[in-house]
Specification:
GO biological process, one term: regulation of DNA-templated transcription
Distance between the termini: 51 Å
Organism: Streptomyces xiamenensis
Oligomer: single chain
Low-confidence stretches: none
InterPro entries: CopG
Order of helices and strands: HHH
Largest sheet: none
Strand content: under 5%
Mean pLDDT: 80
Number of helices: 3
Radius of gyration: 25 Å
Protein name: Ribbon-helix-helix protein CopG domain-containing protein
Shape: elongated
Structural class: mainly alpha
Pfam family, one: RHH_1
Length: about 100
């Protein structure tokens, strides 16, 4: 990745914290600052599309508490059923291990 040099003014206390963090992590102060700039850039990025698109093919309304609970419950039962089926196909499945 190509980088561009820039100059910024920083609070001396912040620079001391960066210096200590760089020493502890074994990286350069510049790397800590680059990571901070990247986090700030991503936090302030304006995305081309909204996070929640109207193209989602859901029920067309916000789920009620019970509907959400039922959907999660159904999904977890489906996932648990898939895991149980996977276990039964392995040799020794269904028997407790020595650590139980």
């Amino acid at each position: 990745m190509s980088m561009k040099r820039t100059y910024v003014y920083a609070d001396p206390e912040d620079l001391a914290i960066i210096k200590e963090a760089a020493r502890r992590r074994g990286v350069s102060e510049a790397e800590i600052i680059r990571q901070g700039i990247h986090l700030a850039a991503m936090a302030n990025r304006v995305w081309d599309e909204p996070l929640f698109s109207r193209e989602y093919e859901g029920p067309g309304h916000t789920l009620a508490k019970e509907e959400a609970r039922d959907a999660v419950s159904d999904a977890s039962r489906t996932a648990a059923g898939a895991r149980v089926g996977d276990r039964s196909e392995r040799p020794g499945a269904g028997r407790p291990s020595a650590g139980w």
